[in-house]
Amino acid sequence: MGTDHVSDYDWEKEVEDFEKTKAGVKGLVDSGIQKIPRFFISPPESLLSRTDNSGELQLQIPVIDFEGIEKGGAQRKMIVDEIRKASESWGFFQMVNHGVPLCVLKAILESTRRFHEQPVEAKMDLYSSDSRRKVRFYNINGHFRESDVAGWRDAFSCTCEDDIVEPEAIPLVCRSEVIEYLKYMINLRDLLSELFSEALGLSKDFLNQIQCMKSEYLTCLYYPACPEPDRTFGTVKHSDPTVLTIVVQDLSGGLQIHHENNWVDVPPIEGALIANVGDLLQLITNDKFKSVEHRVLARLVGTRVSAACFFFPSSEQMLKAYGPIKELLSIENPPLYREVCYLDFVTTQYQKNVRDGSLALSSFKL
Q1: Which of 20, 110, 162, 180: CA 20 to 30 A from 218?
Q2: CA–CA distance, 206 with 362 (Å, rounded to integer)
Q3: Average pLDDT of span 192-209
């Protein structure tokens, strides 16, 4: 009696062999593979949406010009209004004239490429799927199950709780660029914290006072060419389980967001930064601001690099409860969500995103 070739597939061994190389997907590309491992293959229904017609619909995510923000008055009010509209309807917007110099943006992208294009031996000691490690290099993030799908990208990340950067923990190959970039991210976070507070009709120091964005997780992403780009994604669709994300991308494209049942391209703009609302910000604003799914397409030719800085609560607030902001609630606008501590929230959100591929705030609905 013949055996079905499908039953001969050993998922656990394939994943284990890949992880043992400590070389990531770049290692697979460098080895000359023509067929991608099965745990990178996305289900057919998600691959169908790659041929979305959103490009023909002329949908364009908002681009907000921060020029003159420091003057206050009417100019600041206009920018706050634009942030409010974008956060309510898109959950994503691009920022120009945001105060981060172009040379700093180019440096973080170049150092991201430099880190990932080192010989494997230079970076393999950092390779780990353990998300508790503060500085690491990885492809698979956390516990991986057979129903999960990996993205065709490698990541280098560092976690800075309470805005504290530990320089000696960051590899020399990208140390100065990461430290400089984080300094600017923290400054921009402070400004956006005020602008989001004002956009909610609250005092400008409100979000700062509740310390919901006082820690950073910077991940520097490298998307190598893929021999079968129509079978996988650079990053599978997900929403961010944090409060806010700021992204710089190179000019190669590939990032898409899910808006009104279409996948919409986020066109690269030199010098721009992307802001996106995280799941926890949607929860504490009681659905006023929306967190949306996004993904990155795989490509046959060329590499893509980007750096995403995720903001999450201070260590002091990590175990304290966050719920809908009371100042936003009324008889007409009752709370939609229960209170939850951030650690429980992020664990549930991450699992739901990975396992179900869907926005999971329903887990916290009242």
Answers
A1: 20
A2: 26
A3: 98
